[in-house]
Amino acid sequence: MLQNIRVVLVNTSHPGNIGGAARAMKNMGLSRLVLVQPQEFPAADASARASGADDVLSGALVVDSLEEALVGCSLAIGTSARDRSLPWPMLDPRECGAKSVERATMGDEIALVFGREHAGLTNDELQRCHFHVHIPSNPDFSSLNLAAAVQVLGYEVRMAWLAAQGEPSINDKADAVELATLDEMERFYDHLEKTLVDIAFLDPDKPKHLMARLRRLYGRSSVERTEMSILRGILTETQKVARGESHKRKD
Ligand code: SAH
């Protein structure tokens, strides 16, 4: 079940931190590491800091974009060391552990997304996540070392996992709904944006926060696969009407 939870490190500069994160993960029983454009990897410093978690490092998937790192996931939780401009659904680390384990038990793929040492995650990257998690640190000195942040959230995942051991697991796949994955959601947002431009609801020169707000809205709706097909169908028909191509209405 813990293998459904992946740790995503975005654009890490120090390979030592990648090794430290791998060690923290293995200590907590996590094994799936995804690196988005690491500045230096593989690297001797990474192996040195991993001290024994080389299997996590050698199994790490290196990708070019956050979008690729999130393929197949239906829940992404982004970490943030500080407040951001657009308020987003927040979890504390304990809730992050509980939610990750609950959803992983249901067979969903989960991503915990960590940012750059110097600049964290961009707003655009954070807006790809359903929830944000902040480790309640000293407000005057709030940034943890990257590997330390992985350790804290990994520990909370482990505690939630241990607590769930005695409980009956949700095995009834018949009742389980299949949620749209993040890559499917990305294609939907792309389609939605184009449609909103087509019907002149969105001005590409003055987009304001419209797409971010819509991401936040759909992100908290747990959109199911079948619902996603309906939404995509509505967009396709809307675009046809906007182009004057719709033949569906005869009246
Ligand atoms: N200067 C950056 C801090 C980056 S710290 C900023 O202001 O955003 C590097 C990474 O460690 C962060 O992107 C995040 O993934 C994690 N991290 C550090 N401190 C954290 C905290 N208090 N809560 C959650 N994540 C934290």
UniProtKB/TrEMBL annotation:
CDD domains: SpoU-like_TrmJ. Residues 5-155 form the tRNA/rRNA methyltransferase SpoU type domain. GO terms for molecular function: RNA binding; tRNA (cytidine(32)-2'-O)-methyltransferase activity; tRNA (cytidine(32)/uridine(32)-2'-O)-methyltransferase activity. Catalyzes the formation of 2'O-methylated cytidine (Cm32) or 2'O-methylated uridine (Um32) at position 32 in tRNA. Belongs to the class IV-like SAM-binding methyltransferase superfamily. RNA methyltransferase TrmH family. It is found in: Cytoplasm. It comes from Pseudomonas putida. The keyword Magnesium does not apply. GO terms for cellular component: cytosol. It is an enzyme of class 2 (transferase). This is tRNA (cytidine/uridine-2'-O-)-methyltransferase TrmJ.
